Amino acid sequence: MTTTRRHADPAPQAPSLTSRWISRLAVDKVGAVYVWLAIIAVFSIWVPDTFPNLTTAKQILNANAITGLAALSVTIPLAARVFDLSFALNMTLCGVAVTHLVVDGVPLVAAVVVGLLVGLLVGLINATVVVGMKIDSFIATLATGSLLQALVTWITNDTPISDARLAGAFSKIGQTTIVGITLPVLYFAVVAVGIWYLLEHTATGRRLYAVGFNPEAARLAGVRVARLQFASLVTSGVLSGAAGIVLASILGGGSPTAGTPYLLPGFAAVFLGATQLKNGRFNAGGTVIAVLLLGTGVTGLGLANAPQWSGSFFVGVVLIAALTVTGLQRRTTLAARPTEPEPDSDAAVPA
Length: 351
Fold this sequence. Notes:
Elements: H1 17-24, H2 27-46, H3 54-79, H4 87-103, H5 108-132, H6 137-156, H7 169-175, E1 177-178, E2 181-182, H8 183-201, H9 203-213, H10 215-220, H11 225-251, H12 263-273, H13 284-303, H14 309-336
Antiparallel strand pairs: 1-2
């Protein structure tokens, strides 16, 4: 009787450290970093006297902290495949609400808490309309934004809120500087780390990504899709409200148009960020890279005395390119996934 000896297949070798780093630094993973470095090089040659220095670097960070907070506020709902087009007007409403209360003599802490509650309420309204009433998030939050604009006009009568009482403790929220870096940069960093941890290192984050790629498959796998989308819109309301309060502190008053300029840059940053690091997934690290890239370009154009329209043109071109690349990456990722995952499969249920 002949016996056949079976030899165990050799275990696959782990990729070397060099291979891992080459993979991480591939153009399809961090292409925006190379574009960012190219932009830095271009402006260093174009305006060598003012651009390549530490002061400009601090200026880019300080000037784009609010853009970063705005972009991060919509990162979570976009990860769950819902839009929040009202975030910019929510920023404005929360900012004017807090400044109005401070001018009326309400203690600062109480005024800030009320402002955050306003943002929470806006998030709850968006979530109820989108998830509860099953109205498309794009249309629903656009309609909510119109209501918020009406509230802003009612509170301000289209006149900026300014008063000497806003120059005290309230101004320190956004104007305090540490070695040339303002506190909003710190807020931006803290929120980015928090969202990064949530999306990359928690079960909730994995479920949010599952919902974002295929809500129906996620539902069949036992993920509570509606609850996650509801929570993501509420979170967006609170974060954008907080960003609006910080913005009002930076401006030293409540402007009825304060948040509007952040609508396009915010979405441009988050969509460009989705092309980085995670191949089509909205993520905090990619958003930070995108904010710095956009901020560097706009600041460089300003230092080069380029026409006023050039900054908006630059952001618009970047947004179109980012949307195109994000769409291609998402289609590629979905094509590589099983079309009908089994609800009972352990692999189908996000851990």
